[in-house]
Amino acid sequence: MKLQRMNRRALALGALAVSGALALSACGSDDTGGSNGDETSNTQAAGNIECGDAKGQLQASGSSAQKNAIDAWVKQYTAACKNVQINYRPDGSGAGITAFTQGQTAFAGSDSALKPEEVEASKKICSGGQGIDLPMVGGPIAVGFNVPGVDTLVLDAATLAKIFDSKITNWNDKAIAALNPDAKLPDLKIQAFHRSDESGTTDNFTKYLKAAAPKDWKYEPGKSWEAEGGQSAQGSSGLAQQVKQVSGAISYFELSYAKDGIKTVDIKTEAAEPVKATIENATAAIGAAKVVGTGKDLALELDYTPSADGAYPIVLVTYEIVCDKGNKADTLPATKSFLNYIASEEGQGLLEQAGYAPMPDEIITKVRETISGLS
């Protein structure tokens, strides 16, 4: 009898895993590689999603850094709310904000908060309101590298600035050697890759370089790459692919893209030891962020030069940008339902296994309150 119960349980778990896999493939998303236990907990989380009157298609676009988080959320949400289809295009923060302010999408994802002129533009499509920033996803911007024979690499802000400004061009440069006395650095040309599209990841990466190495990074931070030289690729996935394929490559992208054997740089800060790009170390830095948005806007100010031990300095926060008032009547129920889910304890709970950092409690509580008042 005990064996029969065990067999029945195994069959039930197998059926659950299969049905979960079918639901995921139906969404056209990447496989997260979860175990049966993960599928079980994810299904339970999906059971807590409140669909309400949500129905129809939600068009959204923007940050490619959060794509893997969006994929994980959409898998769970659409499994519970079968009358909703969510189409998210990860075409970059700049393109996402443009699409939103032109009324083409219900919400946008951006790794940078709205600029004043973008807020002004949003008032044309947010009837009686404006676009607001809702911080939803956090994480480290990893610096991935492909240097044959080198498994561990330490760099500081000044050296990174010189590499990405084509001032340091070879991997055996004395500045890199000084930071890595035990590494066997090859006589190999550095292949530095940056984003070709407007990107909040670029904005945050260059904000770090400007804040931590102002003498070596003369360019103003922004979504568009300003430095001369280097090579470019589209999206975070494009940069990660180049690092994986090109010997001597180095680039920047959200940690969730540092997979399939891609190694990441440890960053030397004022702390005693170089800091690894991990979720925990990014959370330590994001926890010190301050809300600087006014009214219902929850834009954050990040500290790119933390000195605390274990605080990773190159972090980003991705915002979901939505109208506080004047959302389209046909998409408002689905927009609120989906945003409520991703801001919930269950939604935020998926982030770490997807390679991201959840928002600190005091911030996500304000996000939930703001979502409830969207109209």
From TrEMBL:
The protein's matches in CDD domains, at most eight in alphabetical order, are given as: PBP2_PstS (cd13565)
Signal peptide start and end residues: 1-23
Q: Which InterPro entries match?
A: ABC_phos-bd_PstS, PBP_domain, Phosphate-bind_PstS
For the PBP domain, which residue ranges apply?
A: 54-346
A Pfam family per the record: PBP_like_2
| Swiss-Prot/TrEMBL keywords | Phosphate transport, Signal, Transport
Matches recorded under SUPFAM superfamilies: Periplasmic binding protein-like II
Record NCBIfam families: 3a0107s03
The record, for PANTHER family, names: PHOSPHATE-BINDING PROTEIN PSTS
What family does the entry list?
Answer: Belongs to the PstS family.
What is the name listed in the Swiss-Prot or TrEMBL entry for this protein?
Phosphate-binding protein
Task: Please report the organism this UniProt entry assigns to the protein.
Answer: Streptomyces glaucus
GN (gene name): pstS
